[in-house]
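Many introductory courses stop at the sequence. We go one step further.
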Amino acid sequence: MKKSILKIALFATLILPFAVHASLINPPVVFDGVGNEKLRECPAFDCKILQYGAMIPRIEIIESSGEWYKVHLIERGYFDNSTQQAKELPESKWQTSTGWMYYTLIPENILSKIGGSSEIKKDALIGTATLKKQSSVLNCPSTSNCTLLTYVDAGTNLQIVGLDKTGEWYKVKIDDPILAGWDKWISANNFTDESKKLIDKNSGSVSATTTSSETTKLGIGGWLKNTFDQFRSNSKWGLLVLAMFVLFILFYLIGKYRLISKVSFSWLKSHRTIGIGASVLCIVVVFFSVSNYYQKREVELKDFLVSQQKTLQDTNKNLDTLNQKYNQESSQRIAQESAAKAIIQRLENKVNQGPSSANSNSLATVVSQWSQIIARVECDFVQNQESWVSSGSGTALGWNNQTVVLSNRHVLVPENITPSTCRTKLPSNAATYSGDDIRVSSAGADWAVLYLNNPDSQIKNITATQPAICKNKPSIGDSVVILGYPTVGSKTGITATEGIIAGYDGDFFITSAKVEQGNSGGAAILLKDNCLLGIPTFAQSGKIESLARIMDISVVLK
């Protein structure tokens, strides 16, 4: 019997962690998604991202693990460029991916069906904090594996609804429909010191009243200490009670052991006498205990009022400081905007003046040199008896002794739909080249290669020399130029837009250069080294083109 019990206990010990870690949901809970659901390889923010949303998604929740849910993400449609609308595919062509999804991407009413909404800690308002500089908003508390959602200007007041375990990241509330369903995190170092102090205090790191917490933890030793302190603070009463207690004990000992034989202390042997004496002492002790309690409460109340008054004064002082800083930062922002407008005006003037200055000649030379291999790409698609054409940009290269066009995956294979054929043309050549052999990144990155079917000697000569590839990481502030065929640009030739490197995000460079629809797949040239820096793209950043991102060319060459 004992052995059976031990076996059962051992089995429960081994199986319990797995049972608690994840629980199957049968039958699966199904709902229609909105398209921004991010799918990960495992239930953690550090896990690899398998898919960035889907077109007309259906989601089946099959397993739960704390704040994470394992799902089947079913993509049921595609984007029709001709009508600019999403269209549903036949069920036989639906594509299913399996991975983990964070609970914030699942509607509350769906969570209530699973029973997980009550287990997940809700966001609670901690306080309001002010940014001291322009800040990146990420979807998780890290800079390595998180996605950039947007930027927030300096001086913005944000509601703080959570902190990470280290306290180095603040979870913020931003009412933006585009960002709905995403957690939004900003580094705590981007907020003003006054704001950080208030948030840390409101989150519980600083106790409001020390006296009160000490009182709740008083034991017998603490009670005796407070009573002794009370006696000591009221010396007359303390001495009187102490004298009565000593005298009573002395009389009791004399009577019991007849220490003084000539005096009769028989009355001290009476239980009644002992009871009366003990009662008197108890009454005195209770009196001083009650008095001690109410005096302590009075002191605590005074300390609490003083603390609250000081907090109110500090808050008012912080508000005045924040208002002053906000006004200063507003003035700085206005000055920065004016300076930016002046820079833009100077750039426009340089472009309008043509090759009159050394910088303009340098930029014009770079554009002229690289434009020879920048290709315009058009692909034909047929789906559900409907046909359409998509266009974008690419770079013609010699690749493994073959002539190819390097572009974005979402340009050549949008929504994972393979085109029937693609056509490409270079500005330096009147010929049109076709191809239907497209190979995409095996790692899931947003790049693909189109192999040309009919390369002639002219395009082979153009691509025979490998272009200069950037070997060094650019610095923030370095100038770049984007070459491509945006839909809002020239209808007959290449369009060049100039900007700077504004930041980094994993395998991407963030740039101020304008990137429009059609620029994707073109070339980003680092001006100072006259080398190919990467491919303008937006797919990896949530399909928001205005973020203007460049995929590092080293990702392709790995």
